[in-house]
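Lab meeting prep.
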Amino acid sequence: MIPLQLSLTNFLSYRKATLDFRGLHTACICGANGAGKSSLLEAITWAIWGESRAATEDDVIHSGADEVHVIFVFEHQQAVYRVLRSRRRGGGATLEFQVETPTGYRALTERGMRSTQQLISEHLKLDYDTFINSAYLRQGRADEFMLRKPTERKQILADLLKLSQYEELAEKAKDLSRQFKGQADQIQQDLDRIKIQLQQRDVIAQEQAIVEAQINTLQQAQAADNQELQRLQALQHQRQTWEQQLTWQQQQYQNLRGDIERLQQDLASSQQQQQELENLLSQEAEITAGYAHFQNLQSQEEALAGKFQSHQKAVEQKRKLQEQQTGVINELNLQLRQIQTQLQELDKQEQQNQQILNQTGEVEAALAKLQQARIRLNQLDELQLQVSPLLQRRQQLQNQIDRTHAKLSARLEEISASAYQLQAQQQRQPKLQQAVMEVATQIDQLEKKRVYQQRVQEKGLERRSFMERLQENQRVCEQKIGELQQKIDMLQNPDAICPLCDRPLDEHHWDRVVQKTQNEHQEIQQEFWVIREQLAVCEREIQVLRGEYRQLSQELAPYDNLREQRGELQAQLQATGDVQQRLQQMRAEVEHLERSLATGNYATEVQQELRQLEQELQNLSYDEKNHALARNEVERWRWAEIKQDRIKEAQRRQTQISSRRPELQAQIAEIQSQIEQQQTDSELSRQIAAINQKIAEIDYKESEYNSVRTAVRQARNWEMRYQQLIAAQQQYPQIRQRCQELAGVLEVRSQDVETANLQITNIIKQLEQIPNTFNEIQTIEQQMQWRKLQLEEQLRQMGSLQQQLQHLERLNQEYQIQTSQLTKAKRQYKVYNSLTEAFGKKGIQAYMIENILPQLEAETNSLLARLTGNQLHVQFVTQRAGKSGRTSSKKDVKMIDTLDILIADARGTRAYETYSGGEAFRINFSIRLALARLLAQRAGTALQMLIVDEGFGTQDQEGCDRLIAAINAIANDFACILTVTHMPYFKEAFQARIEVNKTPNGSQLRLSM
């Protein structure tokens, strides 16, 4: 991927910017911290993969903007592509992928962002994680590859080497192997099931003949029972007709009896009602007199009720007027109390004001002293304004002198410690040389054993492959022996047919077929025993090779440790080369630093300026204590101003009280007059007197009204009896006529009952002459129903047997087809199972990683030697011994696949975390640069750009020079190299610079060549 152009709109710190990469080979992106240098590179990763350092998706949008757009044009495999990605704040996002054609850009965008993103990754053959772990040394994440787990490092290498295609092939082969294995197992199960079913053919044919005979017997018995059933059903139908007539006549008889009983009850009831009416009519004179007395009492009650209502109305009016008069008087009393309270409050305020006015003389004397104190404070404030900048500057100068002293002391301690380490290294040089030679001799011996071990392993693999072929031939022989034994068993049947053409065999042909089959069986049996002997020999050879391999593995266990030890020793030996020269330089620098610290000969200009400031401060003679006393004096007399405000307020309130008192006294006199008038000479009092006179005129007596109401309630019974008398006079003629009608109807119904009883007797005589065949019919029907169920069961069984015979015929044909399919599926399973192992992680993938790691290690150490002056050395270890239990022996130690990175310096092998920031960056830079360079040199790898984002701040000047030299050395291996820094010294080493400046309108770009 070679960048061509990048356009940003509202991305992070950029509002609008465009950067053209054409013509840039090695360039530096420079600018102050926070100017937006890394944002340019984040825009590239966001455009291609939608990934950035932002915590949320909306954080990439420029502050104050609603939408972000990024357009990135790049070249890949001699084609130009363009990616357009945008996002709206709080909304959705869009992604477009295009390729350049002679007529313009043609869209490659898929349906949906996820599909389009997958298409971009497929074109680049590179995902985000792989990119930032190889070609992009991201700010703050340069150690990304080092901090990954060994398995994750191995996966990153696999992705960069495009080993995913082998993993895909392995998965496809595994799926196909699993598919053919399942298909073979399923076919074998089907064949076993079909074979069992085909053995049931003769049994089914015998059952079919038996079922046909049973069906004929049942059909004959069913026809005889059907004729007898028809005769009995005719007799039963005739009897049922007479029984229906008998039932109807009996029902009519019961209905007539019911009518007679109902008529008798109605007649008795009517006669009783007639007697009651006659008794009531005999009391007509007494009821009429009582009813007249009741009407007289009712008239008296109505007259007294009118007086009662008038009296109650007048009493209610009087109560309402009295309530109004009381309310008016209460309101006036309330106003009177409120005004009296206000007058009392005025008296209290007048007393308080007089107390405040008595302090006037004391307050005036205090105000004069306050004015004098403020004049003194203003003078001291003006003097403080002159002194404050001088005090701040004096503190700054003193801090600078202290920092310079601390730096010189720290540098002195650092140089002393380094000199001590160099002297120790110089003394160890002869021992290191001897140790390197001894370790190299041991490694040479072990390498020879490794070659022999590899040959033993190859021999074991060849024997294992031969053994698997023998096992496959053994399974084939066992299958053939089983098939031939099955043929021999079939030929033992007297009615045997030819197993090839399915035709009957005569005696001559039967002997030939049996003899041929037995000969084949004996030949395959002999071949089977030969394979068994070869398998035993092969197994013994593998056991011998396995023991020899274990012994060699045990002897080679120290190999990796020795290689690691050799690297450490070589690094220590290389580090002792220029020790003497560096010691002389350090001693001279130590003498200079000690002399400067002892005489105070440092920061001379700052010390001179500090002495001048001290002289100026003495001339001004400013004292902070006097200033504080002046402030306290002003605060002590400020109460006089507060008291003066209170005196003025008291004078104003006294004037208001003097004018308010006469008004309140006049209001009290007026309200007392209104209360007296309401009680004696008001409109309400006159209305109350008029209502009292009206009540006297009504002359209502409550005792008289209550006695009349009691008499009315007692006489109300005559009203009810009078109404009953009127009703009896109307109903008596009707009741008498109804009694006569009921007696006539009762006589007619009695005659109908006698006639119905005679007809029932005649029908019973007819039924006695016809026999009841119900039980016989039910018995025959049950027999026929049972026989019908048996017949249906036999017919169902017959159909089932016929279907089974047809099914067995189809199964026989299917058996032949699936036998050939089984052989094909087993063969395919073996092929794809072998391909799965070959394409897997322990096959060709592991082989390719093992081949590339020595080259990567050599390239890394070459770069690291140039960056550190042969001080550091790295080693890649792909296998290590696993942890074993206490009871396990050395022979049982299992080797674990890994990708550990061992780092050695002059002091030996140490953990990565113990190295300083500058050393760690050089290690990371060397590994990542070697990895990127190696991938760029490999044929077909699309990694053509390198990005180094910051990290140079941890390097001194010598380290920066070495980094620049390393970048220039690999420049020809990449189409584009971008470095990011804020250091002026580092950016001057590059002719092409992309300068980034932050302005109020966002970050701005400027390209200088």
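Slide two material, second protein:
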Amino acid sequence: MSPTSETANGGRRLVIVESPAKAKTISGYLGPGYVVEASVGHIRDLPSGAAEVPEKYTGETRRLGVDVEHDFQPVYVVNADKKSQVKKLKDLLRESDELFLATDEDREGEAIAWHLQEVLKPKIPVHRMVFHEITKDAIRAAVANPRELNQKLVDAQETRRILDRLYGYEVSPVLWKKVMSGLSAGRVQSVATRLVVERERERIAFRSAEYWDLTGTFGTGRTGDASDPSTVVARLNTVDGKRVAQGRDFDASGRLKSDVLHLDEQAARTLASALAEASFAVRSVESKPYRRSPYAPFRTTTLQQEASRKLGFGAKSTMQVAQKLYENGFITYMRTDSTTLSDTAISAARAQVTQLYGADYLPEKPRTYAGKVKNAQEAHEAIRPSGDRFRTPAETGLTGDQFRLYELIWKRTVASQMKDATGNSVTVRLGGTASDGRDAEFSASGKTITFHGFLKAYVEGADDPNAELDDRERRLPQVAEGDPLSAEQVTADGHATKPPARYTEASLVKELEEREIGRPSTYASILGTILDRGYVFKKGTALVPSFLSFAVVNLLERHFGRLVDYDFTAKMEDDLDRIARGEAQAVPWLRRFYFGEGDGDAGSGAAAAAGNGDGDHLGGLKELVTDLGAIDAREISSFPVGDGIVLRVGRYGPYVERGEKGTEEYQHADIPSDLAPDELTVEFAEEQLAKPSGDFELGTDPETGREIVAKNGRYGPYVTEILPEGTPKTGKNAVKPRTASLFKSMTLDTVTLQDALKLMSLPRVVGADPEGVEITAQNGRYGPYLKRGTDSRSLQTEDQIFDITLDEALAIYAQPKQRGRAAAKPPLKELGEDPVSGKPVVVKDGRFGAYVTDGETNATLRASDSVEELTPERGYELLAEKRAKGPAKKTAKKAAKKAAKKAPAKKTAAKKTAGTGTAKKTAAKKTTTAKKTAATKTATAKKAAAGARSTSAGGTGDDGE
């Protein structure tokens, strides 16, 4: 069946894909006779709240969206925002003769295709159309060679979805009750959070150790050149045959873990002085051949890691950009565990190697790469440029982030089919005798590359910014054993061991993959979830756990230890893959996971017979979440700091306290939410406790007799009055106390009663304009300003609120009002040139806070970012994420305004038809009916909202795998 045979047969074919962009590209390749339409993602899923569950379901099924008592049957509902699209698809289907389901080739894509078939209920032939690149040849080949729906893939995806729903909807409410509302737990996200927390615990427990060594610069006595330097820089290796301690010789507590010589500063300086006049000679020269093979083509995780290292992209923005490249036909499918290249791709890569670098760089045989990922999801190709001839980056016409990511993929793919890099690595050892008789031996290592091979095209980045990249050469002088050397300089160098580095997005993705936790295709969304939930925030590129995440992980480890155990999670992944291969059955496995070993209708024997193994790693989730009495919420969220100070994670954020509440010794102070946990020392906590807190009694208002106090509120310091007892606080006669925020120049411990009374007297009447309109001076959210009717004008300083005269105010109003933005303020910080736009990036202070901009794209700083600590790389990453999101969609407010503009036309029509009594009666009936309908809708909406809140308030941990 060819793509053009439908015109001969007189048929019409409907092709359904996920996205409109993909539909647009594919429709251009298929031509007339084909209608390509998008489902716009999933059209059906588990309900997001009880309000979406059909009335016939009750109890646990209504709460979970899964009938756990009847073989874990899921309750699927068509998403509310997809009903119109489903109707459109059904209308198109009625006019079609064949249906092609052309969703992605992975598990999720197979599940979307199955849901489409279940919802649309086609009565015409249905074909599953699969492809891994969107090119004319690939699409036409896919139409000509369809297959049946793969039910095993559908079952595997459904099992994951049900598992994640049970995990999230059962464990998340425990977090709401014991830690804080709005939190979520998830099979993979909770384990990922635990990894980040454990790394921070290591940093907190870490104790730095100081050690010293020597660095010497030794001359050969020859005039050197680029290929044969005249000096060699070497580091002290042994003293009297005993190795000198390096950082690797210390454990996390700062103690030596091996028998080595530990030099302190005095010993190192003494030895350096004793070697100043010593004679040195080369003791050995060891040369080995150097060979480096190309890196495998990209799969999903390695692309995310390299885009993070080289381009500063987060995992989420990498996948967003890659999605656009795939949908527009530039690269192959970007969610893949495979490093395999098709024969066509290998031929295209080898052709470009010859064309761009010459035949000397092309190996005799094509290179093949074995997959390193256990249980690789599907037999996809690696991520590569699409087509049978690769377009160079310059030929694509791409710009910005899409150009940069395509270039990265193109380089890596071409380099994978090039020859090895070769050269030599050399180690030189040299020694001498100190004036005090001690023997000191130094060593130096070098590397020369004689043939760069694939390194001409691509060099992989590193997570460690200090790491040496593969194409870096270190040339040593050409010396032989016994050659004399002179010590030009010997210096003592001090070092300190460093705590383990925090994870970055790239290194966390790598860790999850190496531990076989979760599916690589979902890592981007997992990282997005733990960042959005506030479990983790970024400092530069480092992932820092919040104090909130410490409380969550503490609870999960103590009471749900198996659910966040790394091996348990990996074993679950193995089980899910066995189900996908048909080696195990989903229902017995889910039953044992939820109800426990031997519970329910199927005992352990039945489960084992179903291919689920001995089940040692499976337990009963239901029982775990039923008995919560043993969980002490206060203990879970409390962490000792030292000297009697305890950190607690409260409803409104972290704080430290000391002493018992209600006693004079009790102290309490809030902790900045963006403070890294390893920076919370006893000294820092003492500083916070020493700061003024609580209520400051300023005195009595002489006019009202009410007490005036200064407080530190959730939104900053303010002053207010204390109302007498018995003052009504609700109802028609309610009295609100006068309240005013402090000026930026004021603090709680310096504000006076006079200051407070002036602040609470605002707004101040400045006077009236010639037309009698009152002008007031006020302090607002965005600073001091004047107001005359609806016309507001900004003031330069807070003091002007009390000082400005009527003449000065009129002079301001006499000037034309500045439309749009105010005069540009000087930037708060300059970050350098953006690697995408090439324009200078600066940090500015905007209406809604600080933001980074290159003049084209603006990105607001996150709560975890501070202007002072913002690095250029973090600024570029924020801009890249904003670009990947694309332009903001029109808001509902704008749509409402448009609707409001059309409203007067209806009123006019009503007036014209209101001339007879009949018309009036009809209108009255319509109005009454409308009110009843509106009331019914409102009541239904309230019930629905209440149901949704009871089921999914704050979200749950569906990992979406």
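Talking points for slide two:
The first helix runs from residue 5 to 9.
The longest strand covers residues 279-292.
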